[in-house]
Design brief:
globular; six-stranded mixed β-sheet; 2 helices
Length: 158
């Protein structure tokens, strides 16, 4: 993987309100900046057998294997193009999320984030809130819920 330096990255530690805004299938999504290690382009993807259909393979990041997750497939049931990827911080999990592009890093006040209610145990619970940004709805991905679902799916495949 080749690291992409994203302009506008904060010089000091990220605040709780910073969100990385990115696009998938012409929709905007956000992750809390505190879970993001880097944005990267992908060079080599190794296949990974016996995994859920949204796992595109394994990528090597500084000699450590990370599972490459197609969030577009999880959210829209369509295979994503391999454009860019968001690497989660290692202490959170060894996952890389495929995205179309990074759009911005934005400070969003907690009172501007609106919760979305869902039935339990649906993939929709991975998107738990939204906020308005530049005239668009940006959907917040619940990282903990998404990782929990991925781990459950891995356990079922094995």
């Amino acid at each position: 993987m080749t690291e992409i330096v994203t302009e506008g990255l904060p010089a000091e530690g990220p605040s709780e309100d910073k969100h990385l805004i990115f696009s998938i299938r012409d929709k905007y999504y956000a992750l809390p900046f505190k879970v993001v290690s880097e944005v990267a382009s992908l060079e080599k993807i190794s296949p990974m057998p016996l995994t859920p259909n949204y796992v595109r393979g394994i990528v090597n990041r500084y000699s450590i294997p990370y599972a490459l997750i197609d969030i577009g497939f999880i959210l829209h049931n369509e295979v994503s193009n391999i454009e860019k990827a968001i690497v989660l911080k290692e202490e959170i999990d060894k996952l890389v999320f495929l995205i179309d592009d990074v759009t911005d890093i934005a400070d969003i006040l907690p009172e501007n984030i609106h919760k979305i209610e869902h039935e339990e145990n649906t993939i929709a619970t991975s998107v738990n809130a939204f906020f308005n940004w530049n005239g668009n709805h940006v959907f917040c991905i619940d990282t903990e819920e998404l990782i929990h679902k991925i781990k459950q799916d891995f356990d079922q495949e094995i």
